[in-house]
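Fold this sequence, please.
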Amino acid sequence: MSLKGKTAVVTGGGSGIGRACSIQLARDGAAVAVWDLNGESAAQTVRMIEAEGGRAAAYTGDASEPGQIHHVLERVRSDLGPVLILVNNAGISHFKPFLEITLEDLERMYRINLIGPFLVTQAVAPDMIKARWGRVIFISSSSAQTGTAFQTHYSASKGGIISLSRSLAQAFADCGITVNTIPPGFIDTPMMRDAPVDIDAITQTSPMKRPGRPEEIAAACSFLASEAASYVTAQTLGVNGGRVPS
């Protein structure tokens, strides 16, 4: 499923799911813009890609701040070309009882998890429309499908991503652009390991009795970015070990 000649942007590409997606898209032939708040993490992902003979460049910036979005994407276009694949992966997680969530908590969650992906997609869409080809892939969360008692603001923000994806898929269906969402289950990432939960206990409640691997999300991302998925749009492709039956 070659993506040779295509430029991909992966937000939050410095670690976890974003790193795995960046590496896989580079293996598929894309030139990958690895975008992260942590510049050294982004650079490390690039080094891993280059070690395999792939092409990538690191970019540091806040993918939820309009000025930084514009600046980073201008550099990407100059370095790698028009953006035809976008993986909206950057996001945050937060555990807090509903009655203790402040307006600041809520606004920060929505700014990073929903408004940021909205703005980045809006900024790259003209490249895809001009090319009459594009792939937008949102990384949501299975928590948006099941709900999470101590992550109401997080679950709501990720639910918004699913609705945004479906709406954009309809808006761009006749432009050669597909828009889909991957809501991961429990994935073994630095963010998950830093969460104040018992990961082993949680994963024992899932059908497969194990956490997923970032590479398993990347495999789904690879498919959705490929020509093989040209008639797949407005879909929510769960990669969750059976946690959320479709």
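The two ends are 26 Å apart (CA to CA). Residues 103-131 form the longest helix (29 residues).
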